Amino acid sequence: MRHAVAHSRDDDRWPNDDDRPLTPQGEAEFREVARGLERVVPRVDALLVSPLTRAWRTAEILAELAGWPEPKAFPELGPEVPPPDLARALEVYAAAEAIAIVGHRPGLHELASYLLTGEAEGMEIRIKKGGALRITFDGAPRAGKGSLRWLLTPKTLIPDKTGGPKH
């Protein structure tokens, strides 16, 4: 999952970009996305999150509204960690049925490509802010061994008037 819409970079307001928060509108929209995501992914064993403020707040909303576990800081989801290192760090969770991660561009996109093709630049994947994708594995997660099950935009996750996601 990519974090929800955050404020634009502003060195005066957030000298450390790690502290840049979600916008009020981004948070409000993501609250609706989280409700839709709960219907698509009702159970998660672990919610691993980049230590940056905008990702952390996105994960808090998921825990609150989707009923997912409390977020767990996962520094390897920071913006500068190469996909092979991140994939190795995730091996600790290989026995889990479903883990969710909340991260950033380009690292999250590169990780998805690495898991699907074996190369960080093996394919172009675009995850919109507040969007999600699901990669499954036959056995333990390994580079190039993942299968893309879905890639959803925030708009497709926002429940329609009947209460279900628009997918």
Silhouette: globular
- Structural class call reads alpha/beta
Give the biggest beta sheet: 3 strands, parallel
Roughly what fraction of the amino acids lie in strands? Answer: 5-15%
Order of helices and strands: HEHEHEHEEH
Q: Give the fraction of residues assigned to helices.
A: 25-40%
CATH level-4 homologous superfamily: Phosphoglycerate mutase-like
What do we call the CATH topology?
A: Rossmann fold
Number of domain units = 1
What oligomeric arrangement do these chains adopt? single chain
Ranges with pLDDT <50 over ≥5 residues?
Answer: none
Number of strands: 5
Strand neighbour order, sheet with most strands: 2-1-3
Task: Give the overall average pLDDT.
Answer: 92
Radius of gyration: 15 Å
What does this entry show, briefly?
The chain is an alpha/beta fold and 167 residues long. 32% of the residues lie in helices and 13% in strands.
Description:
This protein has 167 residues and is an alpha/beta fold. The chain contains five helices and five strands; from the N terminus they run αβαβαβαββα. The strands form two sheets. The chain has a three-stranded parallel sheet, covered by helices on one side. Strands 4-5 form a two-stranded antiparallel sheet. Helix 1 (24-40) packs across helix 2. The mean pLDDT is 92.
